[in-house]
Description:
Low-confidence stretches: 75-80
Strand order of the largest sheet: 1-2-3-4-6-8-11
Strand content: 15-25%
Number of helices: 11
Largest sheet: 7 strands, mixed
Radius of gyration: 17 Å
Shape: globular
Number of strands: 11
Amino acid sequence: MPNGNIVVTEERGTRVITLRRPSKKNAITQDMYREMSRAIDTAQNNPDIRCMIITGGSGVFTAGDDIDDFMHADTSRPETLSDGAKFLYSLALNAKPVIAAVDGASIGMGTVMLFHCDYVLASNAATFSAPYIHLGLVPVGASSLLMPNTMGYQRAFAMLVMGRTFTAAEAHAAGFVNTVVSPGHTEVEARKVARDICRLPAEAVATSRKLLRVASEELTRRIDQEAHLFGERLKSEEATAAFDAFANRKKKK
């Protein structure tokens, strides 16, 4: 099902959600958030879909939010970030195993969404960052909860507060990447993992997954808390200066 920059396909009980906007390094627009949310939400009551894969194809996962698209959104209303928030809610409330196949750069939301996934494959060319701090902003997507839980406070501090970039090897050592493979092989390996999951008893998988994960109520509370603080930070002098600098760099190109 091609939907512009998001392509959704199904194969052997697995729904594959592919970000396909190579000219912009798969930067995510509000429309793309809506399409990904729809792909996740419509899988929930479909017994034929046993798990999902999120991928950006070969060479890049995603550059994160499309800043131009984001800057043209109406930031005067609380629901401005509703498309991104809806996508995060879809991930938080999702009951199906999600596999991520990351080949290349994974920035901002690209890294944040991985902490909502159940199994992450990365190529050894992959990099991971959530550099909201450089825009004068704060963590999103319950990352301030999930990252310390997954990789410890110090590593989460380095990524979220210092804006550090992690290599694939560092991400594997930190525990949020399961397997590192050669470039160009992440999707193939992700499909193998999906087939393994699809062979397992579906109800037992769902129950076991629920026991392992942070409760959805806690996730959505943190998503809301972060979104409120994010909205406040958007109005700050630091964020305004950072976005103005970005706009000026674009004009000079």
